[in-house]
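Quick one: structure for this chain?
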Amino acid sequence: MFAGTLLLLVALARTATFSVPHEPYLDRGACPFECCKYGRWVATRDVPSFTSRTTSTPTPLVIRKGDWVVAETGIVVTARLGRMVATRPIQLGEGRKRVAVPEGAVFYVLHYWGEGYFAYWYNGETYSDPHYLEPTSREPRSIEGSGARVLQTPEWQWWVRIRTKSGRTVWVQGNRGFDGADGCGG
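Got it. Here's what it folds into:
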């Protein structure tokens, strides 16, 4: 009896572990828009940089307009997970990476990927899908008739680790103020 109860508790703990991602959710190496690329970027305006991934740290230097840097990697930090509920049975994901989500099931929004795609979490797996949220400048909203409804909008930031031409490594928020991040030429 004790062994059976213990096995049930372990199984429930494993299920609980996978049902909700940790906050903050860290998507290391993410480059969150279509054709996004790391490499040589050039500042199009003065851009503040930080010693760590927070704007409350002292600003060690300003990347000056015209200076080049090497964007080494990035991370999308989701401080608050978005939550959605399936209002009817839906398919989350595309191609080979798809999952059936039953009516009433809650799934999580991690962050925007670009070109209408968002990163989602369901049952311990991540999926990319354009069918359930409309990207907006402030908060994503449910696509009418999609079969899913927003319960809570996500909050995320994209941080990029850059190396200056003098060799110093610092962090900047996203690619605003730089040319070179868009591999499609935009």
